[in-house]
């Protein structure tokens, strides 16, 4: 292999690619060639660095310089200054917003300080399309250790000892799940990787598959070894083209290296992996629904038992784990259960990856030890609320979770604590909301999602959620009554109690948690017919303050329906009957003269 | 059963697709993916041929097609517009952006404009939450879109 003096790492995650990271890569390569440096400096497209807010990210090794918001036209300067002259390009470095200090090493950034990256260990570090780079970071060493030194039961014991719990949402102990699957004898067994990430606003599984696909393949092979399965299936969303491509490359390379296929590492163990594509159905994240979908059927869940460990894909024992769960396995085998279970809390060991998004300064992908508080995540890692607004709520667990408030900010995040306060871990979406977000509308947003995604099998979920949505819609239209709130509560409880699968059992959570935590807001909607955050269109009016309006005509020129009248240098007036409440005028006004009433 | 009107070459392509999956009913979803990739959508005739080739009922094929949101029975526009309705995009104003697209193109979600140029659909999280709200048109991704940008975006495709 060539020996390079320096490496330039470019984020090749979906977000940064959308902001032209491929053009940056090409320009950097051209600039290096022009200087005759292409033999000494390697340009690598890696997986996601996590700091999506300031993408595209470029990192230079060995000095760990972290450049943000790089544009293709910056490539030449980066090569000329940093690579040739050894001077950092200051204008592309990150500036700490509080201390106003320029930080060049990512280790010193608030965003990274509290993170421990286990599942994301290789994302933003290696080239995901090169198996050699994975092997160079202890890749496939865990599989080698299992096959040569450990019995299937001792591997299972190690995973049990580590305390690893399923990262897909349920939090079921992984080692126990593997043990069940290993105890059922059959001529054929399957290992399934659930990569059907459906939570709106969650993208951790995709980032792992894009940034480190081999870690998942290795873990699936280890799982196959423990339960006696020689076939692995990855069920992935068709909407993830980049992750699909990288997985295909990884499977091909692993086969070429004899790390998948027959007689792996001369051990006599056979294991191969195939891909199966989802087609856009949230319910397919539920394991029985996922299995039916892989069989070419409608993805409807069925009653457990029988559990997939007894009768799963094609009626054979099947073990289903989520992407992030698998990504943890090789590290646990390499470093030992006792290293892993010291991280995190007693009942939730290890770390958790969260997709931090919404009204927060540092949108991105983070991995923190279990037990980190919401406050640390939002303020220290997330850098606080955008535009200096006030924090209102944080939503965890996607459509199955709840909205937590200021009062919950010091709750250490783990499976049990989040359940105790009426939300859940879920797969790891974390959406931050500020004072401008209406919590009734947020609940309605989630119900809209659930109504669309309910598979329709159980009446409470199919019909009940629709009724919940209608009630919420009525409230946001200003037609709700106080009795509707009781009805919302009762109906929610019935849906939770009587639905078959996780979707229906958790779908009312956004409603219940917002009623519980933001009761005043519901009351304002139903009693005063007002939306305190000015989000509910039917309850608001845009008005121009004649004192503040200078008559610049900017609002009138931008109004898409021409409902703003007024002469130049005279105060303007909005015709509320014609106004479509698009907010364009308020966005454009430079004098803060337009407000919502 | 409706009379099949598809051109023979298209029928042959479909038969080939089914064959490449061993005419196995369990491969239905993969067959549908491939068929939609080839034809752009899955009209009734296509579903009937697939049912015949895989030896399953048309009702079964229809049941699967309508279950999954990725499959469509109507053709998409030349420039398919997708507005991300993931939570991150939603709280950063995706709904206003969607309203503006609907208003300017005068077409509801899930349908195509009369000239066949644009279709609007909502999708759930493309995972570029750092760029929220996100709109994709074909392969192109637009980040941090405001309602005021919509007219200009549409203009790019109208010439």
TrEMBL record, chain A:
It holds the Pfam family 2Fe-2S_thioredx. Residues 540-569, 570-597 form the 4Fe-4S ferredoxin-type domain. Keywords: 4Fe-4S, Iron, Iron-sulfur, Metal-binding. InterPro entries: 4Fe4S_Fe-S-bd, 4Fe4S_Fe_S_CS, NADH-UbQ_OxRdtase_51kDa_CS, Nuo51_FMN-bd, Nuo51_FMN-bd_sf, Nuop51_4Fe4S-bd, Nuop51_4Fe4S-bd_sf, Soluble_ligand-bd. Belongs to the complex I 51 kDa subunit family. This is NADH-quinone oxidoreductase subunit NuoF.
TrEMBL record, chain B:
One of its GO terms (molecular function) is 2 iron, 2 sulfur cluster binding. It holds the Pfam family 2Fe-2S_thioredx. It comes from Marinifilum breve. Keywords: 2Fe-2S, Iron, Iron-sulfur, Metal-binding. InterPro entries: NADP_DH_HndA-like, NuoE-like, NuoE_dom, NuoE_N, Thioredoxin-like_sf. Belongs to the complex I 24 kDa subunit family. Binds 1 [2Fe-2S] cluster. Its cofactor is [2Fe-2S] cluster. It comes from the Bacteria. PANTHER family: NADH-QUINONE OXIDOREDUCTASE, E SUBUNIT, POTENTIAL NAD-REDUCING HYDROGENASE SUBUNIT. This is NAD(P)H-dependent oxidoreductase subunit E. [2Fe-2S] cluster binds at residues 84, 89, 125, 129.
